[in-house]
Amino acid sequence: MAMYVDDSQQRFPDRRELKSSLPGGYRPWSTWPPSDPRAGWASVALSNYLGNVEVWSCAASRRAPFADLPQLTQRASTNLNAVTTRYWMWRFDRPDDPVPLDNFWGKTEDQIVSDLQAAKNPAAGNPGGAAEVELAVDGYFPATIPSVEEALRGRTVHPGGRNRLFLDGHVAYLKDSRTPK
d(Cα 133, Cα 116) in Å, to the nearest integer? Predict the structure, then answer.
């Protein structure tokens, strides 16, 4: 992502058209969340920057019950050998025009932080800088969301927490009391 941004006048990708055109299309959930954070678009937009497409599919996410979840998986094309992504990128979750304050399509890092602060979205928080802004995350299904199906409630790809990639490029595994399983 950093290489893409460096090559693109410090702007993140704006590939909203892929949210609808990739297999499975745009699928905002009718339960939780009311958006589509799947990252199939990113595997297409960043394909020139990665040598190994397996980076889009954490080994833990390929096990039951996560392996084929429509909420978590998205293929990068209809080709049988296409990359299947299994990460969420919450702030690239809607194809709206104009781009919502809490989405990152085509924005600079400074604009992202500023827009998130202005959005006052409790789910995104009020970040003090790029080190506090989540860019990508493993799939998770909080126990605190009543509409999450029972078999998934409280589950995450990595038990008890999530791997997160932040806007400034650092990665961290963080425990989450909402996902104890």
Answer: 9
Hey, CA dihedral for 67, 71, 75, 80, is it positive or negative?
positive
Exposed, middle or buried by CB within 10 Å (0-12, 13-18, 19+), for 101?
Answer: middle
Distance CA 137, CA 163 (A): 6
Look up residue 21 and give its two tokens.
């055109």
Calpha distance 33→30 (Å, rounded): 7
Calculate the CA 138 to chain-centre distance: 8
**DSSP secondary structure, 121-174, as one string:** -TTT---SSGGG-EEEEE-EE-TT-TTS-TTTTTEESBTTEEEEEETTS-EEEE
CA dihedral 70, 76, 77, 83 (to 10 degrees): -100
> What does the alpha-carbon distance between residue 173 and residue 138 come to, in Å, rounded to a whole number?
10
> How does pLDDT run across 132-173, given as a tens digit for each residue?
999 999 999 999 999 898 999 999 999 889 999 999 999 999
